[in-house]
Design a protein that fits this description.
single chain, alpha/beta, six-stranded mixed sheet, two-stranded parallel sheet, globular, disordered N terminus, disordered C terminus
Length: about 300
């Protein structure tokens, strides 16, 4: 059988204008983490940030940690150089994990208190939230609802990164927090030491003009990702330099095309995809039922049969 092939050539002219982006890391520090786990999470934030230009005319970063309490470790406008913010990030390793997983409280805080002008949020900057967690929150419906408010009310793009066996790559809560398509915005690794494997993937999604180097000593693991449609080969070639202003949206558009459109065009016919956003909304509504909430297995969406 001859595979269907799509060759997509993208030519974008270079731009010297920095991408204006406000990025908030939302980091789980609950008692299920060891101090070593949290240190690896801090290393991940450090390694993402070090590749990206920091400042009021470029990308700004904030870090919010959560468990039973929510703490903003620094605001978006607290640090205006890479050297100062990397030093601040390194200092987070002194934090001791404790408490429960109140993810929804953290997302509420970010929506109401992080992206505000007094803390450096810029009206003309794209908003990005990157959530790192190793487990299910104490209240799935509220977590899903707060993530939706970030996306709909603020127009933020939300990345969710699940770590470990307690929250799988197909976990409904992990997928409900992330923007669409899931294959672009949702990630999963087997342990905290594997977070470093995501650096080459995550950094260009924040700043598509940057090509990060692999982290020295990082385990050779493959982060969980969605597979492409069966019996189809898709070749995407980016020609010239990706413009800072338009690149991210274009990359997300391509990912959406691959995940949602090509599956319908070339994959198995008349197939319901549980990863599709509309289907997932129906799944989420079902989980609001108290019986489903009491059954942890009901929170898992089986992988699509493609």
């Amino acid at each position: 059988m001859i595979s269907n092939r799509i060759f997509l050539w993208i030519v974008i002219f270079p731009s010297n204008v920095y991408l204006l982006k406000d990025v908030v890391f939302v980091v789980d520090k609950s008692a299920s983490l060891s101090t070593e786990d949290f240190s690896e999470a801090v290393d991940f934030i450090y390694n993402v940030t070090k590749f990206i230009a920091v400042g009021s005319t470029a990308t700004q970063f904030s870090v919010v940690t959560f468990s039973s309490d929510i703490t903003e470790r620094f605001d978006l406008n607290d640090y205006s150089t890479n050297a100062t913010i990397l030093n601040a990030i390194s200092g987070l390793k002194s934090i001791t994990p404790s408490g429960s997983t109140y993810t929804y409280d953290a997302l509420t805080f970010v929506r109401t208190s992080s992206f505000i002008s007094s803390k450096g949020s810029r009206s003309n900057a794209d908003k990005t939230v990157i959530i790192l967690t190793d487990g299910q929150s104490v209240n799935y419906p509220r977590t899903a609802a707060e993530a939706d408010l970030l996306k709909t009310n603020l127009g933020a793009e939300v990345f969710s990164i699940g770590i470990g066996s307690a929250i799988s790559a197909s976990n409904v809560e992990l997928l409900s927090m992330s923007s669409d398509p899931d294959s672009y915005y949702s990630h999963h690794v087997e342990s905290y030491v594997d977070l470093c494997s995501l650096i080459p993937t995550v950094v260009p999604k924040i700043d598509p003009t940057v090509t990060p180097q692999a982290v020295t000593g990082c385990p050779a693991t493959q982060a969980s990702t969605s597979t492409s449609p069966e019996d189809n080969t898709v070749v995407v070639a980016a020609v010239a330099t990706v413009a800072a202003v338009a690149g991210l949206g274009l990359t997300a558009l391509i990912a959406s095309l691959l995940e949602k459109k090509l599956r319908g065009l070339f994959g198995k016919k008349n197939q319901v995809d549980p990863y599709d956003s509309m289907t997932r909304q129906g799944t989420n509504r079902a989980i609001f039922d108290s019986n489903a909430l009491n059954d942890p297995s009901a929170r898992e969406v089986p992988p699509p049969d493609v």
